[in-house]
Write a structure and sequence with these properties.
Blueprint lengths: L1 H10 L11 E4 L4 E4 L5 E3 L14 H7 L33 H18 L3 H20 L3 H16 L8 H15 L6 H8 L3 H14 L9 H11 L4 H16 L8 H15 L6 H8 L3 H15 L6
Antiparallel strand pairs: 1-2, 2-3
Length: 311
Amino acid sequence: MVEDKRKLVEEVTICPECKGTHIVKDLYRGEIVCEDCGLVIDEEMIDYAPEWRAFDKEERDKKAHTGAPVSPLIHDGGLTTEISYQNRDSYGRPISNKTRAQIYRLRKWQRRIRMRDSTDRNIAEAFSQLMRVSSIMNLPRNVRETAAMIYKKAAEMDLIRGRTIDGMLAAAIYAACRQCHVPRTFDEISMATNIPKKEIGRNYRFLARELKLHILPASPMDYLTRFGNKLKLSVEAQAKAKEILDQAEQERLTIGQNPIGLVAASLYMASVLCGDKKTQKEIAEKIGVTEVTIRNKYKQLSKKLGIDIAL
């Protein structure tokens, strides 16, 4: 179909309305126009320009055909104009003082126009905090975008009123991590945002109920690799822990259980079985559970699965 469209565009030489031959291709607007009668023969043309190469930023900016892509991490999607603070023209030359004052006023009004009301200001502030927290927690881009969309939807539904931006943002991050199968514990989010765990949990339940978020329970497997690497366990020990968790799921021992406690217990058992032993205290401090939890869970797993651990 693309080849047929290209052939059609190339073959247009006579206007079908006035039979004129002054046909102009407006590549800026993507249109084919007859200069004699003004008829728009074709529109929304695809740019078939050859691929180009650029070796520095200046050459890339000069040859680029489009602007920045739409991003959900910007409160307005990145669709509005952004006036640079570099005070240079399109060729990189410094602008005059008279023009600089004019650009300053334009920049000020542009900043005001981008935020139409209090909701936009709220979302912009929240997204600024989101980038900071995501950097601290090393969250992938899909989690950031999901958290941004959850928070923006909550703000547009006026669910933020009466609640703090940081508290609702922490809940949105927790929900996004669960949805993207890279879960983070309440302790980790609380440390990154300085929000109490109880407030995060309360806001999360509120968001899940009001936005009707369909979030499945977290699986122990989602935490295994990250906690294994955090404890610097060997590949054999992590594989053994995965095997223990697989057996526990087959025996339906994970139903209704805290996944973090199960992961901690399986990693402790695997470290002992593989000779890469870690103490219960060390695992508890790294993962964020108590030694009693690890002790109870590993005794339960060893008894149900018939795994003998020689301490």
